[in-house]
Specification:
With 441 residues, this protein is an alpha/beta fold. It folds into two domains: 175 residues, no CATH class; 236 residues, no CATH class. It has 22 helices and 14 strands. A six-stranded parallel beta sheet has the order 10-9-14-13-11-12, sandwiched between helices. It has a two-stranded parallel sheet with strand order 1-5. A hairpin with a 5-residue loop joins strand 2 and strand 3. It starts with a helix and ends with a helix. Bound molecules: uridine-5'-diphosphate.
Length: 441
């Protein structure tokens, strides 16, 4: 068992760390799964042989050297040299030879960032592990998941068995196909205030921590409620077919990009989104921040009893959390005035409205002047998840940006149009019509 986070939490000095490491029976064991590297690399080399031959012929014809070398440093500060073909197609696949000859692994120590010296020391004393083309951290970075720290992810990866190793290779290949090969710096710079333009909307390009800080920071203009929306594939499709909804989205104080579809679209527009700022992942961070900053929440929406169940679950999870009231979202007699009075009387700082798009966005904008809370968020099916009435997709699906498939399986009738029809339409609008760049509708 590799232990990294335990050591960070107890803040060992190097000397005590060395002593404590002696107690772990796993010191210097090999990373499970790496025995699969050679056969998998060989299989891929054989499949890609025609492409390699083209690259070799091209190099010979243009009198270039066959390979170019890429110098990298892994997270443990070790130098790593990777091969790429100097010309031709899929030039980076030459790295398969590095894997075959045991220079690096498919999965191993990441090449995308550096660990702190104490963590490097812990890892090197506990396990023999090469640098890896893929890592769990890189996978989470590609899909914008920000639930675990890099140390937690490395610990989880290194403690995995051979099946986990194989699964990580498959998931990483899929994420390369879906999200491109490399994590690059943004090609374009955000326009202003950390915002960028997607489909004609100003979307905040923040990390999860920055988004939470923005929401829970008391930066409101006095007596004005800040309106926050999360925009995803569904809301973009709605905004393109309904100009009124587009205007409503434009009137928010902040729009956060939610989901892998927005990530893909941003990449097409030349931006790399800092995080997957979806409400479901964000809520625990908001709760933690509310406890720290002594701010309160109000839950409005979902079927009767659901918001209260979600509130109870979150209060159990975050001791000290103040949820000043809940109200369901099926008010047939349209008693919005009464609900607003109840929200205002509760004195909440942050209001979460969960009635689905576009109802929740319209409700918030129609009533923003009467609301007295600092911030109000439209959060979709959030209370259904936190009350336990709808389960969240398994991590492996989220790691490849396919959480929507889980929701489709759970509610096939309700979500058919949104996902089965909506997703291809979104891709067509993004990649064929190029609406992501221009915002033309
Ligand atoms: N809802 C509501 N009032 C309505 C219609 C829907 O409170 O009149 C709730 C519904 O019970 C669900 C949420 O709004 O909890 C919408 O969830 P959806 O799955 O559409 O949200 P998203 O996928 O956008 O997160």
């Amino acid at each position: 068992m590799i232990r990294l986070t335990e050591m960070i939490n107890t803040k060992f000095s190097l000397q005590t760390m060395t002593q404590s490491l002696k107690h772990y029976d796993s010191i210097n064991h090999h990373y499970s799964g790496s025995f699969m590297d050679r056969p998998i690399a060989l299989m891929l080399i054989l499949i890609l042989l025609p492409c390699f031959l083209i690259n070799i012929v091209l190099a010979l014809c243009t009198k270039r050297s066959l390979f170019s070398l890429q110098h990298k440093i892994d997270a443990l500060s070790r130098p790593v040299i990777l091969h790429a073909f100097s010309c031709g197609i899929w030039v980076k696949t030459a790295v398969l030879f590095d894997i075959y000859f045991g220079k690096i692994s498919f999965c191993g120590i990441p090449l995308t960032h550096r660990l702190s010296p104490d963590i490097q020391f812990c890892v090197m004393n506990q396990i023999k592990c090469k640098a890896g083309l893929f890592s769990l951290y890189d996978l989470h970075l590609k899909t914008g998941l920000t639930i675990m720290s890099k140390e937690q992810l490395l610990e989880q990866q290194l403690n995995g068995n051979a099946a986990d190793y194989l699964a990580l290779i498959i998931k990483s290949f899929m994420s390369v196909i879906f999200y491109g090969q490399e994590i690059k710096k943004p090609i374009k710079k955000p326009i202003k205030n950390n915002s960028l333009s997607l489909f004609g909307l100003n979307v905040k390009n923040t990390s999860m921590a920055e988004a939470v800080d923005w929401i829970t920071h008391s930066q409101t203009q006095p007596n004005k409620t800040q309106i926050v929306f999360f925009i995803n594939v569904h809301s973009i499709n709605l905004s393109i077919s309904d100009p009124k909804f587009f205007n409503q989205l434009s009137n928010a104080n902040a729009l956060f990009a939610d989901g892998s579809g927005m990530r893909l679209a941003a990449k097409k527009a030349g931006f790399l989104l800092n995080g997957n700022n979806n409400g479901t992942d964000m809520l625990p961070h908001i709760c933690r921040s509310c406890v720290e900053k002594n701010q309160s929440l109000y839950f409005f929406g979902a079927k009767p009893g659901i918001a209260q169940q979600a509130a109870n679950a979150l209060c159990n999870q975050f001791p000290g959390l103040n949820i000043t009231g809940t109200e369901h979202g099926y008010n047939e007699d349209n008693n919005s005035e009464q609900i607003i009075e109840s929200i205002n009387n509760s004195g909440c700082d942050i209001l979460l409205v969960a009635m689905g798009s576009p109802v929740q966005e319209k409700w918030l904008l129609d009533h923003r002047d009467k609301l007295q809370c600092k911030t109000a968020l439209a959060v979709g099916g959030l209370f259904d998840f936190y009350s336990g009435n709808i389960s969240r997709s398994p991590m492996w699906l989220r790691e490849i940006g396919m959480e929507w498939m889980w929701r489709l399986l759970q509610e096939p009738r309700d979500k058919f149009n949104r996902y089965v029809i909506g997703n291809p339409i979104f891709l067509y609008r993004t990649f064929i019509l190029g609406l992501v760049n221009t915002g033309e509708k």
